[in-house]
Amino acid sequence: MLNDKTDNTRLGGSFWKRLLIQKLSSPLVLSFLVVAALFVSVVVYKLAFIGVGVILILVIGLPIVFAIVAYPQFGITILILASFFINYVSEILPEEVPIGTLLDAITYLLILGFFIKQKGENNWSYFKNPISTLIIIWLCYNLAQAINPVAASVLAWVYTVRTVGFIMLMYFVFVYHIRSVDFIKYLFKLWLVLDFIAGISAFQQENFGFLPFEKKWLYSDPLRVGLLFINGHMRKFGIFSDPVTFSYNMVIGSLLCVALIMGNIKGYKKVMLGCLAAFFLFVMLYSGTRAAYVLVPASLAILAVLNFNRRVLISTIVAGTFLVFLIIVPTSNPAIKRFQTAFSPSDDPSYNVRAENQKKIKPFILSHPFGGGLGSVGVWGRRFSPNSMLAKFPPDSGYVRVAVEMGWVGLILFCTLFYVVLKNGINYFFRIRDPQLKNYCMAMILVIFAFNIGNFPQQALVQYPSNILFYLAIAIIVACMRLDTEKQKEQTVEAHKDGVLLTKLN
To answer: What is the pTM of this model?
Structure first.
């Protein structure tokens, strides 16, 4: 049958015929398959469930590892997917499973692939810009915290630098491998699809209740329940670790949609993006995170400044009027009431408690220019130096955490990084000529600005996937400028060739 040329359709075409005849029918391949089958049988028989895990690692894990290193676009996709679902998966698996090391492994593999590719090309021109310089300085400062003499624990630094320091290296990986407009479009689609899945999860939690494993994880810690159960209502978090991360990701997802709507795309796509933006903002209310409510009008104000024209001005006035109405309208709806308190923080008891805590820690910040050490507050501080003053301090604000852990020197560097990113991003926006790349640059400016504002009342950049998306947004801004420059050079060369040809013809 295999030698009959008329059986191509039954075998699935010439590809499968060549595969069966030329590849799988050789004695060497058949011998390998027999040995492999015996090996799998023996391993599963001897090790039972552990043996199945070993086989899966060999059959699935090793090819994925190779693909992450050899095909960076695939690796970036896996990294983004893992950063979105890592907390959700951790709710299902036992606490003993080190699920966090999975993202560390993907990060290291992408860095390895970056250096392998860079060794072959030896092209560092992609990183010759002020943003890359500031990120390198900020990374070095984070690494230097390992020798901070005030730090109570080096182990706290080791655990914290994984999600704070090494994640910065992803910026260089993203900048290096984002080489086409199509890949940027793919990343945006992936981003919005994952945000939509997160929104669906929160919608399910609010209207249909928590799934059994979600409920088990939620009520396994009384402190967690106490933080999330407010005024008789459980705050929702979707597939993320907490309501703050969920709400912030819904906000930046909606801002991405709004920015893309302003691009030159088909009408039905604008309708889809508008519906997505409305959905993201709607489910965001389930989180009960007041800080997220402020991000939308603040970011839209920047959008109006960047695209100042009559249509944008009218839209801004309409949106502002609607916002003022929501703030002052009397209501008994708990979600809207919580929304209104976001715009009068002095009347919020929790805000006043935070302000008091920040006032108490201010003398420590001023007297320690390099801070108390990376990881000295929060989870790792309580774990590795539970008796220290900083371990008991609730930082709340991302800027306050930087000031406490890395001092006022670190805070100045961190704010300078934000300033340089936004300044250069806005400059790139006005310099880019390609409308599509200009639109993408504007979208990332809105995302970074939202993270900038959101990092004041909450810690916006310490949880997955926000820390990954933050450096991805910066990388896309740099890549948009580079791609536009390359396009302008190509057009100049083509115009010069056409001019020379025309001169010869004349």
So the answer is: 0.85
